[in-house]
Amino acid sequence: MTNPSINPNQQAEPQQNNPESAMKRIRIFDTTLRDGEQSPGASLAPEQKIILARQLAKLGIDVIEPGFPISSPGDFSAVQQVSRELQNVEIVGFARAVKADIDSAVRATEDAARRRLHLFLSSSDIHLAYQLRKSRDQVVQIAREMVAYGKQFVNEIEFSCMDASRSGRDFVIEMVEAVIAEGATIINLPDTLGYAMPEEYGEMFRSVRKHARGGESVSYSAHCHNDLGLAVANSLAAIQAGATQIEVTVNGIGERAGNCSLEELVMAIETRKSVIGAETGIVTSEIFETSRMVSRAMNFPIAYNKPIVGRNAFQHESGIHQDGLLKNRNTYEIMDPEALGIPRSMIVLGKHSGRHALKHRLAGYGITLNETELLNLYNRFVEKADEIKLVPDDVLIRLASETTETQHDPYVLVDLQVLAGTQRSRIASVTIRERDSQEERTYTGTGTGPLEAVIHCIQQAIPVGGEFEDLELHSLSTGEDARGEAIVSMLHNNRRYRGTAVHNDIILAAAQAYVAACNQQLLGIQSDVEMKTKAE
Fold it and tell me: Is the residue at 80 inside a domain?
């Protein structure tokens, strides 16, 4: 029998001769605040960039590209402030192969403890013919002159042959030789259009390293876009071909289909470390929080099925999977979500869930059912799952209350009224019924918006110490009778509670979701206390 304390994934991993200490260290270059911000609609204010840069440093990023200094006064200011504040991270000044760009990047980063100049110039024939309107010889000469000019100010120069994956191999080698001769220390071979296949991309690195004069004297970087969904695969191919730096963005944001996703690349390396033979310095426990911060700042929602950080990434509806997970997490998970800072919520209740999962979820709230009650609940549950697909905890608790004819929820929202207008504060009135006394009380409150007014009312009624952390609103249908789904997250003692509700009235849905989250917190605390008492 397998020892349950041993991770089966590790057992199955092929053994390498090299010890972990000999693994290649991959530097993570984050361009969320530059290339990521180029996503349509993802613009950041300078103060937002500062906040995110601090989090990127906390995440363990090696190199941060905070913006494009010459593009705007705001970007210049952001790069300058990040350079002054974050003294333990290398800061990049991004510039075209133009003197004015270089001057701006040099000035913006002059206070950095460690800095780098990042120059880029197109190398593909289609870019030369239609964008630059210059010959190959002219482009090589520009590259030489601008690297030499930049070298007067900084020691570390990264040169990017833009659209390298669609460029002639011999010309890429010629450009690389030219910039190395002038002092470039890092060569970036970008897959600017996300066009390359992994084997093609890896071979380009091998070829340039081998055939360019001085090719083995510099470091190599990969910058991949995701137009064909291959950005992470291509980046891994580059690592295997000798690249020691990978350029990424949080949540994979970026122009068009985005860039290589930081969290996907890092966890691919971390999970298959012994096969890839590489490691990073990323603090994985900060991945989830960083992802949420970027999503909120840029108003870019994260796809439910997004690897690593998507809502469904560590959730399981299948009854077979749920049963295996409850017995041993490693049966259906290759990563530990809690190690990534992700709240543990591996069981999602849907029509494929089994009675074991229902019983386990209710036990977490201190609710115990006998076999007859559990069977009756399961029948109700399946009907509800057919109707709403996924059954959130608050609905499950409500079904348990109906099954046992006992109110398990500490509080129930009985009535809600909101007065809104353009010239005054919003006023709300909420009636709440308390479980133990069965008394109904009405509370009033005001706010700048109707939801804020409602939340103020509920906070008077329900004595919880949790922080109202997040509200998500999703449209589930169209037309005048469209329904909205509200999801409220609360944080208490580093534990998250989520309430969900669906209604035609989105304010009512949000109120019900908030009450549900409060109830979950109270039931969770009550259950923890009972378990502690029994243990004593």
Answer: yes
459-469 pLDDT per residue, tens:
999 988 778 88
How does DSSP classify residue 255? Answer: S
CA angle, 375 then 379 then 380, to 5°: 115
> Strand pairing of 467-475 and 484-492?
antiparallel
Number of domains in the chain: 3
Q: In whole angstroms, what is the distance from residue 280 CA to residue 262 CA? A: 11
**Spans in the chain with pLDDT lower than 50:** 1-19
The 10s digit of each residue's pLDDT in 321-357 is 656 656 776 776 778 888 888 765 555 677 777 787 7
Query: Does residue 274 lie within any of the structural domains?
Result: yes
Asked if 434 and 403 touch (Cβ cutoff 8 Å), the reply is: no
Do 176 and 204 meet the contact criterion of CB atoms below 8 Å apart? no
Which residues are 498's β-sheet partners?
A: 489
Token readout for 532 is 């502690």
Domain assignment present for 15: no
**The tokens of 322 are what?**
């749920």
Each as own residue / partner, the long-range contacts of residues 22-26 (CB below 8 Å, 24 or more positions apart, any chain) are 23/273, 23/277, 23/278, 23/279, 24/239, 24/244, 24/277, 24/278, 24/279, 25/244, 25/278, 25/279, 25/280, 25/281, 26/239, 26/243, 26/244, 26/245, 26/246, 26/269, 26/278, 26/279, 26/280
Q: Are 44 and 129 members of one domain?
A: yes
pTM, 2 dp: 0.80
Domain membership of residue 3 (yes or no) is no
- Are 387 and 422 in a shared domain? no
**What φ, ψ does residue 333 adopt, rounded to 5°?**
-135, 130
Look up the domain containing 521 and give its range. Answer: 411-535
User: Six-digit token pair at 125?
Assistant: 């024939």
398 lies in the same domain as 290: no
Same domain, 201 and 331: no
Shared domain for 148 and 182, answered yes or no, is yes
Q: How far apart are CA 142 and CA 134, in angstroms?
A: 10
Nearest to 464 by CA among 411, 513, 400: 411
Same domain, 234 and 88: yes
Q: What is the pLDDT of residues 64-89, one digit of tens each?
A: 999 999 999 999 999 999 999 999 99
